[in-house]
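A student in our group prepared the protein record below, which I am reviewing. Here is the record exactly as it was handed to me.
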Amino acid sequence: MTTRVLVVCGGGASSGFLAQSMRKEAKKADVDLEVSARSETEVDEYLDRIDVLLVGPHLAYMEDKLRAKVEPHGIKVALLPHKIYGRLDGAGAFAIVESLTKAEG
């Protein structure tokens, strides 16, 4: 089963690099992961297309609002730590997704 992830930041650029790094990590682990990166303004367009929402740390002030929007759709949410986001640490972000999705089963 494919896990579908949306990484959001202000404009979508930094999250794009992180998403690419996450795809590489998932491939190494032989996990089917689909990762998109967009601006937080586009979250509504993905409500029926994602399983996990990762939020850039600079959007911490929006976390509660985003949770309220996506959790009723069964979407898991995590605020990315500065260390993972700033280093574009795909392995760290992938581990967060794994922990969120493993918690389901």
